[in-house]
Amino acid sequence: MKKVKTLVDREPLGSDYIASKQNFESICTQVQQLTPTWKTPWFYGPVGLATLAVCISLVTVQSSSATEKPTPQAQVLPKSDVPQKPEIIEEDKILLVENADKVESPPIEKSVSTQAEVAKKEQVTLEKEVAEDINTQSKEREANIENKAQVITKRTVPKDNRFPHIAGYFTGEVPVEALFDADGIQLREGYTIISFDLNFYNGKSNVVESYRGNVIPSELKTIIRNYNVGNMVFITNIKAIDEMDRIFVLPAINYKLIH
Amino acid sequence: MSVNPVYHQTSDILQEELSWIRSAKKDPERFGPLYKKYHEQIFRYIYQRMDDEDLAFDVTSQVFIKAMSNLHKYEYRGVPFSSWLYRIAKSELYQAYRDRKARKTINVESMHLFEMIEEFEEEDNSKNKNRLINCLSQLKDVDLQIIEMRYFEKRSYREIGEILDVTENNAKVKAFRAIERLKLLFMK
Predict the structure, then answer these.
(1) Are residues B118 and B163 in the same domain?
(2) Which CATH number is B173's domain given?
(3) Which residue in A164, A227, B145, B161 could disulfide with B171, CB within 3.0 to 4.6 Å?
(4) CB A89 within 8 A of CB A134
């Protein structure tokens, strides 16, 4: 078979015939079919809107969960520790409101005015009692929170450990309270931590502060809790001394702080 | 040599064509005027190189589908839009040869063969005519393409240059070399 076929004097096709074969609509349809769905404008309409809606709902859910998170903790703690007090307070409040209604209602007769004065006095004493109760309750709550917070589950560390740690945490996520463990930075027996640098955010900028000893000062607790939870805190330039008075620089500790 | 009036356009017509292209880039439905204008040209170019009419119409449709879906890539270079379409047509044609088993075809008129034989200063008879046809089928694709455009389709060097994306002078040189090679084959 020849590679190329040669035709001599083939019957030419007329322009009208060729024009009759034009079909722009089918070309357009095929082009639309060829165009990927994600490239078409209509795709960006519904899909774009749906994506936007999903994003907004996600952000809303996240923000609402973030705001709701602290409240259950705050509510759960007093309930477990002081179970019946809040109910009593509510009863008192109800009484107070009832009394207040009685007091605020205008006296019908002069003889009733003395009764009203008595009721006022009772109301004042009740208010004081309720205020005191609330104060004591809030103090108890704070005390409970602090007590709870101070209870840190220390992790067990192998005796031949060669890396510095705080409360058994070497790296990764660490509760804020663990960072302020009274034992401070530890190494294995025979080594004492003599100084370290703490890298943290003080609310304005990232700072590096050097400390002697092995304990992170408790004064920093508020700053750390307010500005560094969810972020990284680095303890660098950790120096230790052994029984032979030799000084070693230990590897840095990187923590991600959590509540 | 005659001049293709559809291909050789004034600057006003080129500008009008450019406005069509711009609007077609925004809305593919506005490609209509360009389709109407160039459908026949592109079909004839393809049909010239094919023996199957239906397949030629099919390939022509493919050319316009490709052109429409790639119109965003088109850049105006001061030459007619058809030069871009011809390049797409060429590529689609070769794809049809490969994928659809379409037969490569040379369509010639006796008159054109006679002109060529005359250029070779040989006698015009059926023997020479058959020899020339045989030589044409032996030519390389590049040479055959330029000979087809120059001698069978009667395109100007400028037009050939724009279709092949070479200069007018380069097209002249290529055409000259192609005809020389054909002559050599013919004289063997």
Answers:
(1) yes
(2) 1.10.10.10
(3) B161
(4) yes
Q: Are residues B80 and B115 in the same domain?
A: no
Q: Cβ of B43 and A18 within 8 Å?
A: yes
Most A-contacting residue of B66, B68, B98, B182 (CB-CB within 10 A), to test interface: B68
pLDDT at B73 over 60: yes
Neighbour-count burial of B55, counting CB atoms closer than 10 A to its CB (0-12 exposed, 13-18 middle, 19+ buried): middle
Q: What is the DSSP string of A214-255?
A: S---GGGHHHHHHH-TTSEEEEEEEEEEETT--EEEEPPEEE
Residues 32-61, chain A, touching B (beta carbon < 8 A): 32, 34-35
Using the beta-carbon criterion (under 8 Å), do B39 and A7 form an inter-chain contact? no
B92 and B118 in a single domain? The answer is: no
* Residue B2 amino acid letter: S
A6 contact B CB<8A: yes
Q: Which of B41, B63, B66, B103 to mutate to test the interface with A (most CBs of A within 10 A)?
A: B103
Same domain (yes/no): B67, B116? no
Expressed as residue numbers, the domain containing B138 is 110-187
Q: Are residues B71 and B118 in the same domain?
A: no
Give per-residue pLDDT as tens, B93-134.
999 988 887 888 888 888 888 888 888 877 777 788 888 888
B-chain residues near A21 (CB < 8 A): 43, 57
Q: How many residues does chain B have?
A: 188
CA B153 to chain centre: 8
- On average, the pLDDT of chain A sits at 75
pLDDT class of A158 with cuts at 50, 70, 90: confident
Based on the fold, state whether residues B68 and B88 are members of the same structural domain: yes
